[in-house]
Amino acid sequence: MDILQLRDVRYTYQTQYQKVEALKGITHGFDTGRVHAIVGKSGSGKTTLLSLMAGLDLPTEGEVLCGGVSTAQMKLEQYRREKVAVIYQSFRLFPLLTVAENVMYPMELRGMKAKEAKGRAAQLVEQVGLPAEALDRYPTMLSGGEQQRVAIARALGMDTKILLADEPTGNLDTANGENIFSILQGLAHESGYCVVLVTHDQGLAERADRVLELRDGVAVGERG
Q1: How would you write the pLDDT of the chain (224 residues) with one tens digit per residue?
Q2: How many CB atoms lie within 10 A of CB 173?
Q3: pTM of this prediction?
């Protein structure tokens, strides 16, 4: 069974002048062990869909289900803390915390003791291909590609099998973008994660296992 499901998901928001139907009945499933790409032009509804999957809001109609349970039946704050991890284009690292402290943060929120969290952070930083000495550095001391690796390590520290990535390579050059995609692909294929990424990069989308294409809030194509 798909770990994450969309059932006739619709989302409407009100601007100052009109109601906008951002999503118009999306039904799709996302399973573990695969990289899923959501593609489409700006304004197609990609980011809105990802925000609903991340538990930032509820659909106007329809359901987002995680493990068969609708997010409408969950406390969204708990869902965001325990069920999904989000990786952003802008990294969103805490600038005044070291790499180790950034990665430890979600673990300590869940009540893990500092010593255990620090050891786990070291393992995760190594897993994403950063040297041990990076643990004591601050985000501003790292390149964009290195910061995104830290963001992935922090997401892994949330201990969920669902990784949602919003344009994770958008601020990176081609080489670093390829490296980040390879890390995400390895997490899906080798460690059984469900990786869902929103991307404008057609090259990366073509390498995904499944692709959902949106246009004007409607699913117009699926592959895989």
Answers
A1: 699 999 999 999 888 888 989 999 999 999 999 999 999 998 899 999 999 999 999 999 999 999 999 999 999 999 998 999 999 988 999 999 999 999 999 999 889 999 999 999 999 999 999 999 999 999 999 999 999 999 999 999 998 999 999 999 988 988 999 999 999 999 999 999 999 999 988 888 999 999 999 999 999 989 88
A2: 12
A3: 0.92
Structure tokens at 130: 């950063």
Q: Which amino acid is at 194?
A: C
Report how far residue 143's alpha carbon sits from residue 216's, in angstroms, rounded to the nearest whole number: 35
Rounded Cα distance, 71 and 66, in Å: 7
- Phi/psi for 112 (5° steps) reads -70, 140
Residue 172 and residue 122: Cα distance in Å, rounded?
24
